[in-house]
Amino acid sequence: MESNLTYYDLCLFSGKTGSNQSIFYIFGLSIIFIVGLVANTWVTVLITFVRELRNACNVFILVLCASNNVFLLIFIPFEIFQPDFHLNSLLFSRLIQYILHLFCSVSIMSLLMMSFDRWRAVVRPMDIKSHKGKTTALKVVAVLILAAILVLPTGFVHVVREDELCNTTYVAMDLDMLGGVTFYCMVLLYICPLCLISFLYLSMAKKLLTQGKTIRESLRHHVKPRAQRSRVAWVVVGLVVSFAVCWFPYYLLLIIYVTDDAFYERPMYYLLLNWRPLISLLNTCIDPLSIFLLGSRFRKHLWSILCNLSKVGKTRPSRWHGALTAQVRRTRSSNSSSTNTTRTALNLQPVLPQDRQC
Fold it and tell me: Which chain regions cross the lipid bilayer (predicted)?
């Protein structure tokens, strides 16, 4: 089974389905690009420059937000402007498909590592040791390499076809290969990680229920306070839920497209398929917003930085005025001291009122 539709014909509005849909689609992409880029950049800056936020879990949040920014900077400009060279470029079609699934793979692998870190903090607190920078860096590199390897099959969905009537070639998607790759990605990058994350959080819930309301005295110096662990766990849960909600329509619509031969007879399905990337791109905005919404420490440091920036703008003139006043006082003081020194050197006595001649 073959298709003469390119990736952009299948996934994007290029103006062929109506100018209104195309305008709405570009407007949605622009909003996601601005909000996602600003929010992910703030999270990246906070984790990078605030020492209190540097821990193993937040490092993977940093990887998640950085991958969101890279994906937004690469994917959305081509979506909006659509340069002419990509339409019949096999390399670009394969690359954009690979980048899309690489973003999904990095996201779910980072969420899996964060969930495992929370599980160890609750279920096996005695096994937790001080996280060294090199160990965390090796974990990040391993996650990136594993994510890049797992999505390699997605880069070979597009092939070059020949049109004998028009004596030309074009880039198309092999639907047989697309179906296999779709089921492969959905099972390996969506269903299995989410099931594993669910198992980890069920184990955490069972442990917390059996542990009781208080922490044992012998473990207090080995684990973080219960409230702090709960906040971090809720942040990770929010990220996992946003990933599951945003990527479920992506895989569901693609499976319907591959398995249903009468797909084109249902305009609503085709409309939703074209909006499929926009739904999955919402995850890049929801991730940092959920971090600020559920993470009290992130909010505290963000408001602190914003307040300091506003105070600097307001107090800058008064600081200049204070510095200028201090400089004038120092100048007057130095002049006065130099005058007294000169009088002492010349043995000059101050003129008293009674010594003055009328």
Answer: 23-47, 59-78, 98-116, 137-161, 181-202, 232-258, 278-295
